[in-house]
Every structure is written in C-alpha cells, then in structure tokens.
Amino acid sequence: MFIRTLSLLSILAVASAADLLNVSYDVAREVYKDVNPAFAATPAGAGITVKQSHDGSAKQAQAVINGLSADVVTMNSPSDIDQIAKSGLLAADWATRLPHRSSPSYSTHLLLVRAGNPKAIVDWGDLAKPGVQIVVVNPKTGANGKYTYLAALAWARRQPGANDDTVKDFLRKVYANVLALDKGGRGATSTFAQRGLGDVLVTFESEVFRIEQEFPGKVQRVVPSVSVKADNPVAWIDRNVERKGTAAQAKAYLEFLYTAPAQEIFAKNFIRPSDEAVLAKHAATFAKLDLVTVEEQFGGWSVAQKTHFDDGGWFDQLYQPR
Amino acid sequence: MRVLPGFGLSLGITLLWLGLLVLLPLAALAAKAMGMGWADMWRVWTEPRVIAALELSFFTAAVAAVVNLFLGLLIAWVLVRYRFPGRKLADALVDLPFALPTAVAGIALTTIYAPTGWLGEPLAALGIKVAYAPLGIIVALIFVTLPFVVRTVQPVLESLPHEIEEASASLGASRWSTFRRVILPELIPALATGFALAFARGVGEFGSVVFISGNLPMKTEILPLVIIGKLDQYAVPAATAIAVLMLLFSFVMLLAINLLQRWAQRRAVA
Amino acid sequence: MNSSHSEPAWVRRTLIGSALAAMAVVLVVPLVAVFWEGLAAGWQVYWAAVTDPDARHAIWLTLLAAAISLVINGVAGIAAAWAIAKFRFPGRSLLITAIELPFSVSPVVVGLLFVLLFGSHGWFGAWLQSHDVRVIFAMPGIVLATLFITFPFVVRELLPVMEAVGSEEEEAARVLGARGWQILWRITLPNVKWGLMYGLILCSARAIGEFGAVSVVSGHIRGETNTMPLHVEILYNDYQYNAAFACASVLCLTALVTLVLKAVVEWRAERALNQAKVKGGVEA
Fold this sequence. Notes:
The structure holds 3 protein chains of 3 kinds. Chain A is of the alpha/beta class.
C-alpha cells in the first residue's frame, strides 16, 4: 500500500516526456534562463520545456549519482561529470561525444576588489599579503574553488626559483587570508558583494563581470597575469535518457548549445564561446590574460583531484585555521 | 482495564506508522554504519574538521541555551506575574520562532546583522562582528530556541502557590531572597528541561544557521554542515558516521529530557 | 496582585521593559526586516515575485506536503494516542520515547536517512529505479521528509489531553453497547478536539517551514521540487533579494496566522477545560 501510494505520488510528479531536466552549477543560473527559451524557439526544441536545477557543482553531481533524474548535466569542470560516469550512469568517454571535449563554452578565474582597489591587488601574489581578506569557494565542494586554487598554484609555479615548498608556502599564506570559504559560487558572491565582507573575491570571469554590472561603482575587476581555463562541459546522462525516452531531445539540446544563437547567449552572459568566430566578435568583452589548462599544467583532473583536493591532499595539509 | 475496543487496530497503525517512517530509515543508517566498523567511524569522528565543528556546535548551542535560560525566565516571569498592555500579544509572539520557517529566520537575521545591516552596522562600529562569526550562530540559535525555556517555566510559575511566598515575606525575607530561596528552587527542574530542549535543538539546527555562519571550515562550520560537506565530496560513509554521532547525541538528550521531565513532575506532585 | 508577594513598581517596570526590549530585538526586528526588505522595491516587484509561476508552484507543493502530513500524521497520531492513553502494555514507555525521537534528530540527518533508503545506492534504490518510481529528488521524498519531521506533533498534544480526560465516559458508553467507532467519533474526539487542533496547527506550521531535511532530498528543480523555503533560498542566491524577502514574507504571514490560530485554540481549550471542571464540580 505504501509503495503504491508512493508510485501514485510519483506519477503526479513525473513530468511529461517532452520535459528535460538540466542539472547545472551554481553561477550558471542566468545563462540558462536565456538559453532555454531560445532552444524552445528552434524547430528541434519545439514543445520541449527545460527545467533547471542549480547548486554547487559537486553537490549537483552527487544528487545525480543518488538518483536526481537529470537528462543533461551542464557543469563547470569535467571532474564532476567523471564522478557521475564512475557510478555507471553515463559512458566513461562522454567527453568525446561532442566537439571541444564536450565543452560548448569556457571561462576563467579573475579577481574582484573594492572600488579604488584599496589593498592594491594586481596579481595572485598579492593575495598572500598580510591583512588581505579573501572570499573564495571551498575547493572541496565546488569546482569554482578548485579553479581558484589551481590558478594561484599556476602563478606560484611561474615565479623564479619555484619548487613544491615555495608553492605550498605561498598557498598556505593565501588560504590563511581566507575570510569565507563558501559552499558554492553564488554564496561567495553574496558574501562579498551583498554583505560587504572581504577585500578580494576570486570567481569566474562571468560572475566577476556580472557583479560589476549589479554593483556599479562599488567593485572593480583585477585581471591577473595568468589563470586557468575553466571548461564548461556538458553531457547527457545515458541511463536517465534511456529510461525516460528523451535521448534525442537531450542530444538536440546539447547540440543547440554549439549553434551560433546559443554561443551568442554565452558571450552576452560573459561566458567565453567555444566558437572562434563568435569569440572573435566579442573579443573586446573578455579579459586578456595567459590561460593554462588543467591537462597541461596539472596532469589532468583525476591527478589534480587526487594530489590536491582528496582527503589528506595538499589542500588539507595547507588549510589550517587561524 | 481492557474494556475499550480498538487496541489491536490502534497499536497496529501506530507500529506500522512508526516502523515505516522512523525506524526503517534509522535502520538503514545503522546498517550503513555497521558496514563501516568502529575503527573507520572513530577516524571520521576524530578528524580535526569534525572535532572543530563538534566543539563549535556544542559551544554555540550551550551559550544560546544559557542566554535563553535568563531571557526565558525573565519573559516567563513578566508574562505570568505582571499585567500590562500588550501582554497577550507578547505571549503569542513568544512562539514565533516555532512558527517561522528557519530559512526565513536565517536570511532575516543575516540581513540585520551583516556589516551593512540595521544592527550589524552599529555593532561593527564597536568592533563586534556578528554575521559570519560564531557570534552570528549564537544569535540565530537564541532566536530559534527562545520559546523552549519560556514555555517550560511558564506553567510551573503559574501553578506556584502564593502562600509560600507570603509565608516567606511574613517571616521577614526580602523579595529578592524569597525569589532566590523559595521561588527559584521550585523552577529549577523546569529551567533544566527548557535548557536541555534548547540545547538539543541548537546542536541540530541547520536552516537559520547556514545563512549567517559563513560556513568557514574549522571556524564557523557547524556539525550538520560537515555532513552536507561530506556528501558533496562523495563521502557518504563519512557523512553517515557523523550522522550516527548526532543521532547518539539525540538519544542521550532525549533520555535526559525525559528524566528531567519526570523529576519536574515529581517536584510538582510533592 | 497582592503586594506582599509583588515587587516595587520600579522593579516591575524595569523587568517588563527589559523583557519587552529583549523580545523586540530577538523576535520583532527580524519579522519587520522581512517585510521591509520584501517591500523595499515596491509593490509591483513584491507582487511579481509572489505570483511568479515558480513561486506559485512552490506554494502549491509546500501546501500539498503539509496537507499530506496533516492527514497521515493526524490519523496515525489519533491511533497512537488512543493506544497509549487507553491501554497499558509492555513497551509502552519505549513507544512514547520512540515517537518523540524525530523531535531531536537534526533535519540534515533526516534528509540523509532518506537518501540512504531511496537513493540509487540505497536499500530500495535499485528496485525503485527498475520500476521507474521516483522517491528522492521528487515529490514523494519531500513528503516523506516532511512526514518524519512533523511525526510527533499530533500525538504529543493529544496524549496529555486524553490522559487528563480519562476513560470513564468511553467505558460507560461501551457498557451501554456503543461500538468502537461510535465511541471515537461521539465521545473521544469531541473531548480532545482542542488538543487535536493544537497538534495539527503545530504540525502544519512545521511542515510549511521545514528547510534542512527537504533541502537534502529536493534536488532543487525549479518549478517542480522546490518548496517555498527552498524557493526563498534560491531567490536569495539569485541576487533577487527583494523577491526572496517577498516570498519570505508570505511565509511570515502564515506563521503569524498560525500564532493567531494557536492563541484562539488555547483560549477555547482553556474555556472548555474550565467548563468541564465546573460541570465536574456540580456532579461531584
């Protein structure tokens, strides 16, 4: 009786077959608000409603693993989709199924400071200065925080005479300055911009530009010398789309992300389009800086995850409470 | 005694309801924990981050409960002993934290106590940081657990016979010493029960705290948040281990509260 | 109030003043802040936020979860109170303790319990998936978490009332040949109706406001599995502070209505009790 009640309830809750569920990361809220109606306006997307779920990326991946029936995931790092693949919900070679390693767009990490830059922050090195208060995402719970960590690490490695000890020492100083280690990107934004805490916020370029728009005259961007390329990979979840019979729609949705209209929407939301032509058109929008990739610089995501972010890794060794 | 019908039916419904809704999920947790073994569980419990969160959760809950011990006694006393305009309204308002969703309380308190907020700004000028500091957690817990002490003390205070106070006064005791020597001892079981309820609720509280705490690991990260953090890191067993710890605490507190209530009842009868 | 056991006027005034001041700071300021922030951008923004389709769906889902909790926990609560108040049996006090257990379990732990049970890797996960039944990250999960959280409210309020009223009337009716259901409908429920109302009010208030447990099992699908408190959180994190507080103020209004209902029920219950006492006194 109990189970029957449950199934009755879930019939009520089950969406019609023409609905897709896009499980996404925290600061992608605005962009998909624009992308979804644009998709519905195309022939392939006619009659398809895309529902959104946003939260910290690792939390979202965990929810999908636990049974959140996402048709597609649109994430901000491949590592979270790899985690989902590990549970067998989608093919391990998911990244090869769509162009640009399944990333229709990418971003990078910049710094955001208070208007007038009172603490004179120009590059990653300034984050280690005593008395600077930093707001970042927890690298254990969000890819946003991982990029911050890796970008600072990339800068430290470029310094003359750098070795593991100097790099660790630098990172230790940076994370000793951390004022708030938020769960997701939007929480960090809220802490810095709305609550007025901290001297520097480190987050995605798209978020930095958006905060500048939302709080004009109160904050300003700082473009560091180097940062990490942050892929925004997407994938359909094989097991879920098979069960729901939405494979074709899910694939069409993700392919739409590569078309010119969608790429334009990414650019308008300050996310870098993978389409070179669209990117060139908006070149003036985006910051100019040296981008390194996780693959070249850190041996790929699984190595980076293991070395730096898993329990007992570098981050755990470095991060000590004051 | 068994004149009335329906024992089998009503007990059956009760056990089915309890079993499916409460005991089955708890059994799932227990099974998961058994699968881990004590050694692994102990390792999770003694992680620095878990210990820091444990200390923080217990410390903030205890401070909030102590504050509410005094605040609750004061409010209960005023509501029972004095007549003043707005008393009924104030009495009804005491239950607001029970009725108000904790998330709403969380965002409201964060807005008020942030450095840009109504109370946060003057406090910040004095160098007191509330939001994103342990003090913020305490403020949130004071709000959430305020009704407990008031509502346990109020009925006892109402039923306290006036004769003993009059006797005390006629024997020449001052009002203050009557309160301390005669009234307060009568209230102690109720105060202890209210304190225990507030403390238990405070340790487990989540919604009102997450917004105001800033969630800084080792500094302002409460125990329930560590569970969520572990889940976010794909560490379900570790999350389970911490959940077991919190459940054990719940059992102990429940036992303590029951004993306290029994003590209070015995005192009332005697 | 007799002067022999009251304080000097200045002490009284100080105490009343400080108690009211404390209540103002702790309770009233947050309440005012919610309405203030909600209306800060004007009525239009407020109205748009409250009537947004996602908000409307969240309200609907919240009310649905609360209604299901009320019915199930109400019926089962009456059954449990009947069994516990009217009969003595081994394990009775253990049962009472077990029923109170959900009070002291942290909401996040409650969420985790249901993930362990119904998640893909949980006890029933594989079976549910093969039968295409969604529990967690769908409405049933939200309902279950709400049921767990609000589990004890009705029993806890009913039990003392049933015990205080006693079983004499029911036993007399039984001797006179009344059937079980008749006794329940005609005698027991009317006798305990205020306690029942009180329990249901507390149950619905908690069900509407639950955040932690529901947050873990919801999946945060906009327009589908967001309850009102979760919708508030989402808006808050979307920079839409005024909209977040507008929706929060709706929850505040339900809280205030709850307080009023509670006060009315308490007042009626007190009157009913006094009348019963008077009646009892006359009969004795």
